Amino acid sequence: MPMPTHILPTTVVGSYPQPEWLVNRAMLSKVVPRTRLHDMWRLPAEHLEEAQDDATIVAIRDMERAGIDIVTDGEIRRESYSNRFATALDGIDGDNPAMIVARTGNTQTPVPRVVGPVRRKGPVELHDMQFLRKNTERAAKITLPGPFTMSQQAKNEFYKDEEELAMALAEAVNAEALDLQKAGADVIQLDEPWVRNNPELAKRYAVKAINRALRGITVPTVVHLCFGYAAVVPGSNKPAGYSFLAELDDTIADQISIEAAQPKLDLGVLRDLSSKKIMLGVLDLADPAIESVDTVADRIRNGLKYVSPDRLVPAPDCGMKYMPRATAFGKLKAMCDAAAKVRREIG
Length: 347
Description:
Layout lengths: L24 H4 L16 H22 L3 E2 L11 H4 L3 E12 L6 E12 L6 H9 L4 E7 L1 H6 L2 E2 L5 H21 L4 E5 L7 H15 L7 E4 L30 E4 L18 E7 L9 H12 L7 E5 L8 H22 L1
Parallel strand pairs: 1-4, 3-5, 4-6, 6-7, 7-8, 8-9, 9-10
Antiparallel strand pairs: 2-3
Helix pairs in contact: 2-9, 6-7, 8-9
């Protein structure tokens, strides 16, 4: 489908709230799972796909009603942004997990073990993309977990080092991305929040892995960073700035997506990404209130102090899956109305 041609096109990072009738949201709220969390789903296996289809249509229609220009499938079929893809690969043992320190640094979390050569057995998100393409006439984006982040969310028991693991994961991601492009994806996004969690390691090979994962992709591409879901990582635990950001100017991705509203990020950092479009987080997902149009418009205007209008894409800070649906919809509507307001001001 054609990409929007107007300035300040709106999008979402990826996820949208899953209905209570589909998932146990109380269980989900306690964790961002790295291994599978089958008990999260409320329906038996024989009815699950149909229910996920229905919930996906609801998510798409909410985004369309809010005015989102570049929609996703809401990641409705996923237990987390990364675990469904990661645990579908050969060489990954998700049934006998290891324990590592969580991204927050204060808890242990079960993760898959890497026990052999990592290879993509077959498509994982292809049906998701095909279903999305059939159910919207708007530009459509699909997200994949990035190879660096997946390498940090697993226990390596096979490769000589984490870089070798990340490059194997990058090949698997690339094979998937090429299939998603053929299926009609207008935008492909890699989620790489862990690059800021381990910046020294990221400086060694994250850009190399991201570029391998995006090889041959001709549609617009995005790399997303954030400080963690607002529902899971409170604002008091979030840093004031990114420890790995300027380096992403060396990736072949077209856009860099950052969380900026909740941490009140100094947007001067955007000068370091002069070759990229910026997907700017302008919705604070830790705030249970729906921001006013004027509040969001001010955040967009602040971004325009550092990025030209043709390079700015308003978005939420992060995925919205942990929010009440009414709040998520209200925030998206405020963002779309704010983008339209600033668009009119610019003329």
